[in-house]
Amino acid sequence: MRAWTSPEMPALPVVAPPVAVHDTASGRALTTTSDGPALLYVCGITPYDATHLGHAATYVGFDLLNRAWRNAGREVRYVQNVTDVDDPLLERATKVGVDWEELAERETELFRQDMQALRVLAPDAYIGAVESIPLAVDMIERLQAAGAVYRVEDDLYYSVAADPAFGDESGYDRDTMLRLFGERGGDPERAGKKDPLDPVVWRGEREGEPSWESPFGRGRPGWHIECAAIALTHLGPTVDVQGGGSDLVFPHHEMCAGHAQVATGAPFARAYVHAGMVGYDGEKMSKSRGNLVFVSALRNSDIDPMAIRLALLRQHYRSDWEWTDDGLWQAADDLAQWRRALSLGAGAPAGPVVEEVLAALADDLDAPRATAAVDRWVAATLGTDGLADTSDREAAVTLLPVLDAALGLSLV
Question: Which whole number is the average pLDDT over 314-328?
Fold first, then answer.
């Protein structure tokens, strides 16, 4: 599957600090180091609807990580999936009377357009669930060989007991796991399972649903095995960061880790990094609540995508927060002031701003701190609080590439 076209990312004349990110499993900030490129796997969309601001916040957050690593001198290998066959997609297609493949391609293309407009660096490999079915089949066979898979009627299940580290990623107690498993696509009440938490890895053919041939009979892979198989194939046994929204901590990331660790015997990720949830009208954005704000709708209303991105950058990626129209309009006003200050060419000293922006992003992707540093420079340059400072004749030349490379904001 093709991704979108990446924006050009300027090379900076300075090297940013090493990047530390918050690891959900340990509860600590970790600076991941490994030989070779930094390996990043971020779980992608299930394309049954357009990209909303919750999606955008997650992918802009991990775009900051991609950029911060690159600015620190690291090569990055980034992989993202698209779950282009799954129950929510099939249910949506049936409800609106559209072919599921047509729906998946239409919404995936809209996602590409949204990511390109927001200047998110494209993944090196963008892999659909359908095209990854052979990878999932191979991985299920590896788990079978390890004695970690069993059959219940036409379905195959993975035994969570096969991984001694099960639970280490989320740190949740069993009651919490059972509740979340049931709420997030699991089937804890299924009769015949060895453990209510065991997830399906191969779903046998159901009437009216798409299915594919396999050594296990016709059917399709489970959700968790899809991501684990893609990550192992395209990145290897251990990634630096497994990323996604905080709603993926359990069961999805816990199960992905278990599948991979039983298959390879190696830790799946050095760090598990999770973005917060975005709300609107007092509730988390979700299809079921009907409170989604779509990136494409904002773009089609002539909203500058850079204003959308700046509104997202004003919030720390790990925070739960609420999207407001006022926040968007404030970002648009701020952006106009930034552009005005940069258009002068000269301005307040830019060196300290560069240092602060790069240091903030190296410190668990602290974009609010980084953008606040730019706000102070703009105020000093325009004389908002007194006499304008234009002592640095090369201020704009210095800052523009940093705002682009580090924050993903193109302001020319």
Answer: 96
Quick one: 20-280 is in which CATH superfamily? HUPs (3.40.50.620)
261-278: pLDDT as tens digits: 999 999 999 999 999 999
Measure Cα distances from 354 to 15, 129, 399 in Å: 11, 41, 7
Pairing status of strand 149-152 against strand 283-284? unpaired
- pLDDT tens string 62-114: 999 999 999 999 999 999 999 999 999 999 999 999 999 999 999 999 999 99
Task: Give CA–CA dist 286/251, Å, rounded.
Answer: 18
Q: Which residues contact 240 (CB under 8 A, 6 or more apart)?
A: 32, 34, 38, 39, 40, 269, 270, 271
The CATH architecture one would assign to domain 305-407 is Up-down Bundle (1.20)
- Give the global pTM: 0.96
Q: What pairing do the DSSP bridges indicate for beta strands 278-280 and 269-275?
A: unpaired
The Cα–Cα gap between 295 and 261 comes to 36
20-23 vs 28-31, strand pairing mode? antiparallel
Q: Is 407 helix (H, G, I), strand (E, B) or coil?
A: helix
Write out the H or E segment, with its range, that includes residue 299: helix 295-300
